[in-house]
Amino acid sequence: MHDCRTLEERLVDLVFDELDTDEKLHLLAEVETCAGCLREYRSMTSSLLVFDEAVEASAPDESYWPVHQAMLRRRLEEVTPHATAQSRESFWKRIFTTKLPVPVPVAAALVLALLVSSVLALRPSTKEAATTTQLPTVVKASPEIIEVPVYREKVVTRTVYVEKKMPEKNATRPRTPVSKPEETTLTARHAEKASGQGGFFTQANLTDFQPADEMRIRVIKRSNSDEN
Could you give the 3-state DSSP secondary structure of residue 86? Predict the structure, then answer.
């Protein structure tokens, strides 16, 4: 299948004669089948011919090159003695003999700038030396240990009886007063005997008594059975 784009890329090789004989013949036959490709090929070949003719017209004749070489040799012979004479002079002599067209005010300003920069460059070093000599020696003191008292808290436990009140089931119901029962406990009986006999309990000696480190309080709630 003929493709003009791929054929245009190969036309450059065909114009500059960079293809083999078989490829060249096959490509020419394919170009002749397409009018657009044939027109492009003819324009490229005509442009190449015009370029070759312009190069040939601008190129000098064969008689020009011998005359040109003779002129180059003569020019080299004239320049060589002057270059050898300059190379024989010493490097330092050329430096001191060179003359620079510098005005006097510009030279004075340059010298003054060099002096000021040198003074400013030397000033920080003297200040640093003075500060290093004036610094006193620092003696590190040994660490001091300070004792701090630590307080220990004591836990106290106590047993407290709390009376639990039951909620009223019926607010309109009248409540009958409850008579307080007589004390019939063993503690009450012992208290009566002590009062009658001149003192039942004896006082204990609490001289060596030490309280507990921890005191705990225990809260016991009364149940319904205790109230009844």
Answer: helix
